[in-house]
Amino acid sequence: MKxxxxxxxxxxxxxxxxxxxxxxxxxxxxxxxYIGTEDGIEKxxxxxxxxxxxxxxxxxxxxxxxxxxxxxxxxxxxGMLEAFSIIKKLTPNVIFSKGGFVxxxxxxxxxxxxxxxxIHESDxxxxxxxxxxxxxxxxxxxNFPEAAKNLPKNKAFYTGTPIRRELLMGDFDKGLNITxxxxxxxxxxxxxxSLGSKNLNRIIREILPKLLEDFQVVHIxxxxxxxxxxxxxxxxxxxxxxxxxxxxxFKIANVVVSRAGANSISEFLVLKLPNILIPLSTxxxxxxxxxxxxxxxxxxxxxxxxxxEIDGKKLYDNIIEIYKNRKIxxxxxxxxxxxxxxxxxxxxxxxxxxxxxx
Length: 358
Description:
Blueprint: E1 3-7, H1 16-27, E2 31-36, H2 41-46, E3 52-55, H3 68-90, E4 94-97, H4 103-112, E5 117-121, H5 128-133, E6 139-142, E7 156-158, H6 172-179, E8 187-191, H7 198-206, H8 208-214, E9 216-220, E10 236-239, H9 246-252, E11 255-258, H10 262-271, E12 275-277, H11 288-298, E13 302-304, H12 312-324, H13 326-335, H14 341-352
Parallel strand pairs: 1-2, 1-4, 2-3, 4-5, 5-6, 6-7, 8-9, 8-11, 9-10, 11-12, 12-13
């Protein structure tokens, strides 16, 4: 039986694309193993599918001063030894890495065991983990065609990102039942990433009275960010996080207000959902979401707002504008030929499964 090791963690965006691959790999009869951390979000997500999970230690590779920069290298070394032992024992045909700091020891262990390693970069420019992993990768998949210029030419493949098939199977009536919404009033979906955005949560709640005059609002607000005082508010539904419900909520949404994580915006594009993107600022990130959002705005798929510049009025006005002009955005997205990420990556997995790494 063909055997594969998947890895990726630290955020939902480094895990959920693997779910799309897992579904296809199961159909093709692969034996699937997943390597992640013991306490990361990846374990809670992967535990819901029938996959053998292996835990290793991982340290965060920070660009800033922190006392943990002293201890984390030891965690990285420990994780490396653990990953090497797991890979040597499993001897998979291929390793697929979605990114996040847990993946670095796994990629290195794969290279040391001469296992072909495929990594995927969601953003326009590679993150630190993928920068460290790239020299040891057999192939590097990209979500944006422009991303190839930042990668070794002989390794880069424009594949798009794997999208879960379930996202394309949303049911309108189920979406209404999940949210307790009515069918004859448009829906704004607000999502601030897997951890939520306190600033976006605050601004949306400030303008709720005005928004609810014309719209219903479903708000994915992040863990611990539900406002219990608003639970009884008609036309407003809050969730900390959604998984199985997501396809059905997408189905009823007319406009999405979101961070600009690469996986999320790829889903908006495939689903042709008009959207407002509020990327993480350079104060909280390396600026990858800003590049993602600028690319989508330039192509006419999205409207980008700078977080430091928005207030309730500006956000409300832009929601109204996007809603009124939603057909323009839908038409623009409909013209884009988007690669099927799952299909393209599976081609590479099959290509390298029988080839030992150089």
